[in-house]
Design goal:
Layout: E1 3-8, E2 19-24, E3 37-42, E4 45-51, H1 66-75, E5 78-89, E6 99-101, E7 104-107, H2 135-148, E8 152-154, E9 157-160, H3 169-178, E10 182-184, H4 187-196, E11 200-210, H5 221-244
Parallel strand pairs: 1-4, 1-5, 5-11, 6-8, 7-9, 9-10
Antiparallel strand pairs: 2-3, 3-4, 5-10, 6-11
Helix pairs in contact: 1-4, 2-5
The chain binds hypoxanthine (HPA).
Hypoxanthine binds next to β5, β10 and β11.
């Protein structure tokens, strides 16, 4: 069994109900990760945890050092990564509070350092990325969800936007035409960097708002914050169950 790393997103600076056994800054050849790397223990099992927006949620999606984050996890022995992501819902059955385990993504981001294979060593590498998420890790999340009686959506396409602003209604219509069910800002380049480093990677997305134009009025930050808080307990229970099922 591999060592699990969790990349926490909005609303998750650590994982409640776990013991923090170690915390320290890791230096990588790509710079410093977003925060101290935590080693957590739950029911006799250890895991690592890294909050991608920093311990105080101060790093916006486009400014995250994704390469340092994935490298720090990799260097610490992590072999599989479950990433958390608060998202907007586009598909009809992806309303607020829905938990989803997407199986595809479309990358709309730009200007982010998005590869370790930048040609500096004289090698050109083209990696297969047909299935961006690990089928095994996805199924571990889905099985854990089923055991807990949670209604997880199995599959879906996550569109990754640049942020930090939310999208226009027109942009969301375009994403919908492209086949996106969810929209968030952080799954890329995180997912491809994990692939480049040989880590299994899956994403647990939780919907905190209807995407722009999908409900009457504006997307409200109060609503997003409230729904984040409402999702926390289910997400925590699911992660601990997935850890036990590893
Ligand atoms: N768009 C992009 N990212 C998000 C959203 C959204 O509506 N909600 C939470 N993260």
């Amino acid at each position: 069994m591999g060592l699990l790393g969790i990349i926490g997103g909005s609303g998750f600076a650590s994982l409640p109900d776990t013991e923090i056994v170690d915390r320290h800054w890791v230096d990588t050849s790509y710079g410093a990760p977003s925060a101290e790397l935590l080693t957590l223990r739950h029911a006799g099992q250890e895991l690592r945890f890294l909050p991608r927006h920093g311990a105080e949620h101060s790093i916006p999606p486009h400014a995250i050092n994704y390469r340092a984050n994935v490298q720090a996890l990799c260097d610490s022995g992590v072999t599989e990564v479950i990433a958390l992501g608060a998202v907007g819902g586009i598909a009809e059955d992806c309303g607020p509070l829905r938990l989803c385990v997407p199986d595809q993504l479309i990358d709309y981001t730009w200007g982010r350092a998005s590869t370790y294979f930048d040609g500096a060593d004289g090698d050109v590498v083209h990696l297969d990325f047909s299935a961006p998420f690990s089928a095994l890790l996805r199924s571990r999340l889905l099985v854990a969800g089923e055991a807990l009686g949670l209604r997880l959506r199995d599959g879906g396409t996550y569109g990754v936007t640049q942020g930090p602003r939310l999208e226009t209604a027109g942009e969301i219509r375009r994403l919908e035409r492209d086949g996106c069910d969810l929209v968030g800002m952080t799954a890329m380049p995180e997912a491809v960097l994990a692939r480049e480093r040989g880590l299994s990677y899956a994403l647990l997305a939780f919907v905190v708002n209807w995407a722009a134009g999908k409900s009457a009025g504006e997307v409200g930050m109060d609503e997003i914050r409230a729904n984040l808080a409402r999702c926390r307990d289910q997400v925590r229970r699911l992660l601990l169950a997935a850890l036990a099922g590893g």
